[in-house]
Design brief:
The protein has one domain. It is about 70% helix and about 0% strand. The protein is built from 5 helices and no strands.
Length: about 100
């Protein structure tokens, strides 16, 4: 809600206060930051989600990251994320489909 009201600082404060964050929360905050031109923050959140909270992106998160990269013409970075997803899909084909995370 804070992001819809153009208050990304407040949104980030509330997000940081939540102990158990799920993929929907991460994606929502990333999308909001990106929509307000704060793409660096959105991509930093994505990195934190993957490395610190060890969550795997879902399809919506993937599109959010690609959209953020496209928003500021980060073609190379968007291509890296795309290549990573293709590798994940290929490895999942061998192991079976990913289980959705909550």
């Amino acid at each position: 809600m804070y992001l819809k009201c153009s208050s990304p600082e407040d949104a980030h404060w509330v997000f940081a206060a939540v102990a158990a964050r799920n993929i929907t929360m991460w994606t929502t905050v990333m999308s909001g930051h990106s929509q307000h031109g704060r793409v660096a923050e959105a991509l930093a959140l994505f990195d934190q989600m993957m490395r610190v909270d060890r969550l795997r992106q879902n399809d919506v998160t993937f599109l959010t990251v690609l959209s953020a990269c496209a928003h500021v013409e980060l073609v190379d970075q968007g291509a890296l994320h795309f290549q990573h997803e293709v590798v994940q899909v290929d490895s999942d084909t061998v192991r079976g489909p990913r289980q959705p995370q909550q």
